[in-house]
Design a protein that fits this description.
mainly beta; Lipocalin; 2 domains; three-stranded antiparallel beta sheet; 4 helices
Amino acid sequence: MKMRSWGWTRSFALGLALAGGASHLYAGSPGVPGKPGSIGSFEPTSNTYAPPVMGPGMVPPGAMMGAPGMMGPQGMMGPQGMMGPQMQGPGMMGPPGFHPASYGGDPMQGGGPLPADGQDMVFQGPPPMGLEGECPPDNCYGGGGCPSCGGIGSGCTHCGPIRRMLSCGPFGGYFAGRNGVGCLAAGVIPGIAGLLMPYGEGGICAQRWYDVSVGGMALKRTKQGGEAINLTSQGIAGPIVLSTDSTSLNEAEWGLNLLVACQVGPGGNVEVGYYGLNDWDVNAKVTSSAPNLYSLYSDFGTSPFNGYDDTDRSFIQQATYRSAIHNGEVNYRRRWVGPSCWFQGSWLTGLRYFDLDESFDYSTQGQLNNSNNNSLRFFDSSTRTRNALTGFQVGGDLWMNVIPGLHVGSEFKTGIYGNVAETDTTIVANSIPSYTEYVDDATTAYINEITFKTVYRLNYSWAFTAGYQILQIDNVALATANFNPVAPPGLTGIDRTPFIDNRQNVTYQGLTLGAEYVW
């Protein structure tokens, strides 16, 4: 019986020593800074070790690694040894729990010499709450280094319960010993969460940067500009069935967003960008089985009564609104990082060109015209506007570093521009000669742009972006606002006055998705 007991305890002691050595090797393995779940090596903050880590009786001095008490009365099997009555005492498993004041504490305050290599002890579950007092330099937050834990400056002094849960989890383990405290292995919950964690190389202080940014913008016009104009009634002075509001550009259309950056000095770069190709094309159409659609030109069939041949008594009337935007800019951007690394941002200044082209078409189709080869009566009016804005802008962005590899922030740009606007109208009809008008004018315009964005790093080279953009433009000419509601001379025999309205305001907003690439 005694021989069997001796063999069992020797096997247990050998297994425990191997487990402690394995955990020490794991703890000291090199890690990649910022990568979730990796554990980097680190050095203790001093040359002492606080005995409360192990608890009284857990590993008494000299008992573990062959000191005088190794197998003696105070050794492995002694009253105060590994298997002694203090196993569940006030040390490791007792009520006080695991509350080290520091790892490598001052000997004058109860600290002791560090345990030798191989004496790291492995425990199940997340580190207790007391661990948030100190955080090892390279093992806070799964090997990401101190900045990964959100520390200030080069020190990492607060690794709170949320970060402990992410790094160790309820089903993982942590170790305590010569190298301080860290995660032995990720648990089930952090294992799943680790798959979703961004690439965090460089820690929380890594500066946001991209060489190329490309993506799409799904914008819609949320402010139309100008008052609605009624176009068509059902019957003489009947209910309005078609207006310029019937062609509102309130559907999102996708466009391209491309930006290339070239570094020109420490923290400074020149950016060349383009976005646009958003093309809205909205058609509104009304039909009637009887020729009883009347136009605005005859005041809906009242002046003259029963309207004009080409524009009234129609079977079909329709309106089509088209619009497209193009934006090009060259900026100098200067980046900065806050002292605690929680915030970073930049300011910029540069030149910008913005182009807004639109057209509004109004057409009617009526009965046969017996006096003109039995062709259908028709009327087509096309109003086109062009805005070319060129000027100077300033702006900047501000980003919050949530965790390494994940940034949330916004960018704002504003500028003053000279807008050379022009409008022309062409009319073709069945019974009247063709007719054209042209007017241009220059005015001062303004552009304000704000984007809210999240940046998620997938790996060293690629990052995914998602956000919301709002674009507001003042003092532009819109096609619907420049549609002339007065009947053309071919119908009335009276000239009308051409005009241009370049004082309209529009707002676009919508979702942005993209990717950023670093060489």
